[in-house]
UniProtKB/TrEMBL annotation:
Name of the protein: Putative sodium/hydrogen exchanger
Positions of the Cyclic nucleotide-binding domain: 708-822
Organism: Octadecabacter antarcticus 307
GO molecular function: potassium:proton antiporter activity; sodium:proton antiporter activity
Cytoplasm is among the record's keywords: no
InterPro entries xref list: Cation/H_exchanger_CPA1 (IPR018422), Cation/H_exchanger_TM (IPR006153), cNMP-bd_dom (IPR000595), cNMP-bd_dom_sf (IPR018490), RmlC-like_jellyroll (IPR014710)
An annotated GO BP: regulation of intracellular pH
Protein localization: Cell membrane
Membrane-topology annotation of the record: Multi-pass membrane protein
Pfam families: cNMP_binding (PF00027), Na_H_Exchanger (PF00999)
Gene3D superfamilies referenced in this protein's UniProt entry, alphabetically: 6.10.140.1330, Jelly Rolls (2.60.120.10)
Amino acid sequence: MDIVTLITVVVSLFVIIGLAEPLAARLRLPYTVILAVLGVMIGASATFFLRTDLTDALNPVAEAILGLPIRSNVFLYLFLPTLLFQATLGMNLRRMLDDWVPILVLAVVAVVVATLSVGYALSWASALPLAACLLIGAIVSTTDPSAVINIFRSISAPQRLARIIEGESLLNDAAAIALFGLFMGFVKLGVPDPTLGDALARFPLLIFGGAVTGWFVARVAVWVLALLSRYDRAQISISVALPYLAYIGAEQSMGASGVIAVVAAGLTLNLMGPGRLPPASWANLREVWDLLAHWAGALIFILAALLIPRLLEEVRLSDFALLGVVILAATAARAAILFGLMPLLSVLRLSPVVERPYRTAILWGGLRGAVTLALALAVTESIRVPLELKRLVGILATGYVLFTLIVQGTTLRMVIRWLGLDRLSPLDDALSRQVVAVALQTVREDVASTTEKYELSRDVVRAEAKQFGERLEGSVRAAEDSAEINDRDRITLGLIALAGAERDAILVNVRERTISSRMSEQVLSVAGRMIEGARSGGRSVYRQAALQSLSYGPLFRVASFLHSRLHFSMPLARMTADRFEFLLSQRFILQDLSGFIDGRILRIHGRRVADLLRELLARRIEAVETALEGLRLQYPGYAEELERRFIRRTALRLEEREYTVMREDGLIGAEVYNALMQGVAEKRGAAEGRPHLDIALQRSEFVREISTFSDLDEVTLKRLGRVLRTLYVNAGDLVAARNSAPKSVFFIASGAVELKIGRQSWRLGRGEMFGQMAILTKNPFRAEVRAIAPSTLLVMDETRFRRLLDRSEALQQAVQASAEKRGIDMPSQGKP
């Protein structure tokens, strides 16, 4: 085929891809179904015209279509990395990490169950060797992620559920392709009946080797991208090369799974990219990848569909029975996951509750697509696979894809309608009315300012204002007087609106670079949790999500362990600095939300809901201020450095805005504007850097400020700052159990704890200590000690405490005062 003919065919395919999307929307069918039907029609037509004697005029076109270099390597090496990489970039990964257990369990278990179910069913129903049957099972166990995601968007599924299924669909493909490579190797080697041990021995290498390769290549790429922060096109070019380097490196150099490597590379860039690249550069990169993935997905589908007539040429009547076995076994395996495993995960609180209608929609929406066809094509091309197996793999895989697309795909909307998933719930219906009312109020204000600015005719303005006012009044009344919505749901709607306003404010601050790129994903994730918490559980879950955002997570505790036990401080310093910046960002955003409550919430939901939301917001602000004050006290001076950085960033943003206004008004030309903006960019680069946090130095300063240690000399204070161990606890965590053996004394760096003995209780705050009485009296802890706020405790072991007590008169006095407060008789110096 000459180059002109090849280019003509490829251009024609792009035209078809462009027309397929509006056609799918008009026919209300999945986009992949339309592409598959068009591909089958083109392939069948080309074959027909080549074999018919009716005309020879279309033979060159038919030969060009059938002569396209469609090989499995084109799919697996060219298109598949693009699809997988873009899917990982589009994930809200920080939110998916909250649900990593159900995602991994569903992905891995679903693939294994489907592979084994189809494999053993085919082995029972045919004379094929088990390895070949398991190979077919792995091929047909890959779902089409885009089809599944589109289903959930069309039925307005809960975001957390959609996120779990999206992650499951992506990792499902990765795991299935890894299994395909495993069993394909057994078939090529002529191992008819591989044992489970053989498979399990090689599977970890495929997964782990691919993950390490992808992670390493992505880390190097992120480092290069950060060096090219001023060159958007260079960054995009490097990102395009990244998935292919990861795929080829894993497959050719490590003998591992290239698919897993691409997924690992995408996840690594997703996590690190927003913090290392400017927001505009990251947004441009994502847009380019969205377009590349759209083209790759459409081309892989339509090119694979062109092969369907060829793969079905040698179909026999007996093959339909085996195809029925594949369909039944694959459907039964997916049903077992959806109706057996998912409810179990919900009972164990590892996954959200998935209602039966949603699970039915997922079952019927498990479409197979181009990946299945590409894997089948790879088998048919191999010279080491027996001919009969090639024929069966091509027919069964193609037949199953056609069944899912034509039977399930075309009836999917009807099933969704039958399940009632196309209708809004009363709460969502009320929310839509609220959105209309809020939007119309904003429009009225904007229209009023516009008519005043352009001095339009008063009669026209008055007539239109009256008509618009009637519409607005009706919308507000509908939002206020909905009979189906009770007061509790009105509060939920108000919380959803408040969390949405918080998210919008975050996006504005990120675009204006008031909030750094490093923090943008984290604060947006918190806003997302607020929205989902309000929708799923109302006020209580919203409040729980707010408290969780301020708590110390398990990674913080690991970092603390590394610092205190192994003297490796870098993770703790970085996470503490992140916490500082996060709390400052939260405070800036929350303080701006009062106006939203006093404006839109009050007008739509009334004063009672507005007052309640104002109280909740005040509590969140107080909790953030308390956490921030605790860090300020623990690390004096660092918060001020971050605040100075915020002021510098804000000043640069305002300066940039002024130059843009002057350029638009024609006061300065393009050359002057570019020179000024370049100067701002250089200053912004210097302001982006976050000040370094020296934990050991900061702790020494904190120890110096505690009155208990006021009489210690400088050398002792520095030594004390180094030997004190840091313990981070969340509100409600047990610090010391009643009747436990005393081993340490605790000093409260930030936060507060409560000591309970029977019905009596004491609360201790910053600078106070506990545990010293049990050590000095050599008795077990009489009190149960729990944190009542996220707290940072400095811990000193018994031996050092006794030495320090001998040397410090201030410490002796503090111990004596604490004993008298609790009615305990101690020696005059507080020593045993």
